[in-house]
Design a protein that fits this description.
The chain is α/β, with parallel strands linked by helices. It has one domain (19-311): NAD(P)-binding Rossmann-like Domain (Rossmann fold). Helices cover 36% and strands 15% of the residues. It contains nine helices and ten strands. It has helices spanning 28-38, 51-64, 83-88, 120-141, 174-198, 229-235, 245-248, 250-257, 290-304; strands spanning 19-23, 43-48, 69-74, 97-100, 147-151, 204-208, 213-214, 243-244, 266-271, 275-281. The protein has an eight-stranded mixed β-sheet, sandwiched between helices. The longest helix has 25 residues, at 174-198. The radius of gyration is 18 Å and the shape is globular. Bound molecules: NADP nicotinamide-adenine-dinucleotide phosphate. Residues 23-24, 26-30, 49-50, 53, 75-78, 101-105, 124, 151, 153-154, 182, 209-210, 212-213, 245, 248 line the site of NADP nicotinamide-adenine-dinucleotide phosphate (NAP).
């Protein structure tokens, strides 16, 4: 038997016949996840809240990847009641992977809420994907070995959840609320895998993070993203530390495609967790706290009225 070749981000294995969904696939890292997955021959569906931005992204992917099987569905993670309809519109009988990539990050106050009354970042990044997972589970279970890939963040490394104030009602600080929303997502991804294993499911849940991924280090994909020469030159020193969004996409792409990746693992960039080739990382110590994850899960069920573990079996 020949040894498994090392992972090569430029020579991805073929995935013809498989179906992948990328939330927020119309821009940023999600766009590049979708572009790279499209090159494997798989069908890639972009989940996007804007039909116009989705159209621009699918056109760009088709222009770069001959024969790309890419399409889009309308998906707004800030609108929880709409997510069942969004999943119906996928028009597929099985889903081989979903990349929970979409995310919103606010830099300044005031505190904002979704239409459902949840703090915007916690409500979109965590609760939106929590509810989406519930709706997707029958499609994921219909594939032979599907994966849920959740995009975390380095910003979550220094944060801790306040389980008594998940919605940042008492003391709202935008950067902290963002980091906590990403931490909630990462706890969710690991807890989901434990519940899937307990239920004997064929679905696996993997957590990834992109390192630091700047638009100014990202190649142009007009009209999705246009990088001016000035921005490119002034960002050059930053490339020592961080990377572009095309490279930030790679841990998620590997988590979708590499047969060696297992549920419950954490993957990120190789160099200080900020840039470079995707590699497995030890699960951060605070992420290994199962009691926090379980309490977050229960609180998320209460806030949304759904429990994805009921669909895990
Ligand atoms: N860039 C980094 O350095 C970095 C570092 C750590 C983690 N991350 C994570 O990586 C992911 C992608 O980040 P990015 O830098 O690529 O961000 P981005 O360029 O701002 O793209 C975010 C994507 O999420 C979509 N989105 C936002 N709110 C949504 C909603 N309510 N429903 C559906 N889609 C929604 C956006 O859609 P619109 O085009 O409609 O706005 C866009 O497609 C996020 O989860 C982020 O937290 C990024």
């Amino acid at each position: 038997m020949s040894p498994t070749p090392p992972w090569n981000v430029r020579r991805l294995p073929g995935a013809e016949g498989r179906v992948f969904l990328v939330t927020g696939g119309n821009a940023g890292i999600g766009y590049f996840v979708a572009e790279q997955l499209s090159a494997t021959g798989a069908t890639v569906v972009l989940g996007s809240r804007s039909p116009a931005r989705a159209e621009a992204a699918t056109a760009s992917i088709r222009a770069r990847v001959p024969g790309a099987r890419v399409r889009a569905v309308r998906l707004d993670l800030a609108d929880l009641p709409s997510l069942g309809t969004a999943v119906e519109s996928l028009a597929t009988e099985r889903l081989d992977a979903v990349v929970h990539n979409a995310g919103v990050a606010l830099d300044d106050p005031p505190r904002r809420e979704t239409g459902d009354g949840h703090e915007l970042m916690f409500g979109t990044n965590h609760l939106g994907h929590f509810v989406l997972t519930q709706w997707l589970m029958p499609l994921l279970s219909a594939a032979p070995a599907a994966r849920v890939v959740t995009m975390g963040s380095f910003a979550a490394k220094s944060e801790r959840l306040d389980l008594d104030d998940l919605q940042s009602r008492k003391d709202y600080r935008p950067k902290r609320a963002y980091g906590r929303s990403k931490l909630a997502q990462m706890h969710f991804g690991l807890e989901l895998d434990r519940r899937l294993r307990a239920a004997g499911s064929t679905v696996a849940s993997v957590v990834v993070h992109p390192g630091g991924a700047l638009d100014s280090l990202t190649p142009s994909r007009p009209p999705v993203h246009v990088r001016a020469t000035g921005a490119r030159l002034s960002a050059a020193p930053a490339a020592l530390l961080v990377q572009g969004k095309h490279a930030g996409a790679r841990p998620a792409v590997r988590a979708v495609l590499d047969p060696a990746v297992r549920g419950g693992q954490l993957w990120g960039p190789r160099v200080f967790g900020l840039r470079g080739e995707p590699r497995r990382e030890a699960v951060w110590s605070h992420l290994a706290d199962r009691s926090v994850a379980a309490r977050l899960w229960d609180a998320s069920c209460e806030l949304t009225g759904v429990d994805p573990s009921t669909a895990c079996g």
